[in-house]
Design brief:
Elements: E1 8-9, H1 10-16, H2 22-30, E2 34-36, E3 39-40, E4 46-47, E5 54-56, E6 59-60, E7 69-74, E8 103-105, E9 113-119, H3 122-129, E10 137-144, H4 149-157, E11 159-161, E12 164-166, E13 170-177, E14 180-187, H5 194-201, E15 206-214, E16 217-218, E17 227-229, H6 232-241
Parallel strand pairs: 9-15
Antiparallel strand pairs: 1-4, 2-3, 2-5, 5-6, 7-9, 7-17, 8-9, 10-14, 10-15, 11-12, 13-14, 15-16
Helix pairs in contact: 1-2
């Protein structure tokens, strides 16, 4: 590999990605735990951190240090855009000091809240949102109750909307509070307002919607309006979720 093509020592790239010390990274290479672009790595190998696919123990590492991956708990009434021409509160108002220009992966309605992923990794973002990869999203919804059991069966079997049929992957009744029911649904659909339209169609409109999970990434205890960087394991799990 030519010296001027951006290539660096593999141990240096791995150490910068947080795998461990250079000596520990060399040990992993010797033990056959590292591949570069599908080939078993050898001590002394070089790679381009911006373009090479480096796997350690079967998990992809992020070798390009310019790439960032952020989870955000979007509050209600915040616009899912980086800047709003009408001056409304937008995602960028919550990012603080993020040097790289990032973009949101998918959207949440203005009235919806919960997990958003932000990144400048366009390739991964495309795969996470493209329906062919089937990345699941989980939502906690407050809907008009009481909720007959038949509603869950109907959602699982499929509901016809004006732009085609849709069915949820999982459905669970979490709680019933008087005339309100709390449900959890998972689906891999990405159509606009899909959850609200789905529940409207079955006669139980949504009064509150919180996205709690995207693929393997969970909202957890991240407070409303806060952001956090994804750790190496979470990033690897996202790559795994969209493997071809």
């Amino acid at each position: 590999m030519p010296e001027n093509d951006g290539a660096e020592r593999l141990q240096k790239i791995m150490a910068a990605a947080g795998v461990g010390s250079r000596r520990a990274c060399e040990t992993l290479i010797i033990r056959g735990k590292v591949t570069v672009d599908g080939r078993l790595a050898q001590v002394g190998d070089r790679a381009n951190p911006a373009t090479s696919v480096i796997m350690v123990n079967g998990e992809r590492i992020v070798s390009d240090t310019t790439l960032v991956y952020i989870a955000m708990n979007k509050p209600r009434d915040v616009i899912s855009t980086m800047a709003d021409e009408k001056g409304r509160t937008a995602i960028s108002d919550f990012l603080g000091r993020v040097e790289q220009r990032v973009y949101h992966v998918g959207r949440l309605d203005q009235d919806s809240e919960g997990l958003l992923l932000l990144t400048n990794d366009g390739t991964l973002a495309h795969k996470l949102t493209h329906p062919s990869y089937g990345v699941q999203k989980t939502y906690l919804c407050e809907v008009a109750g009481p909720l007959p059991r038949a509603v869950g069966r109907r959602l699982l079997s499929g509901v016809e909307l004006e732009d085609g049929p849709v069915k949820v992957d999982t459905f669970k009744l979490v709680d019933t509070l008087g005339k309100t029911a709390q449900i959890e649904i998972t689906l891999h659909e990405g159509r606009k307002h899909i959850v609200r339209r789905l529940m409207d169609e079955v006669g139980h409109p949504v009064s509150r919607l919180i996205r709690t999970q995207i693929g393997p990434i969970k909202l957890g205890d991240l407070r409303t309006g806060r952001t956090r960087r994804l750790n190496a394991g979470e990033i690897a799990s996202l790559f795994a979720a969209v493997e071809d």
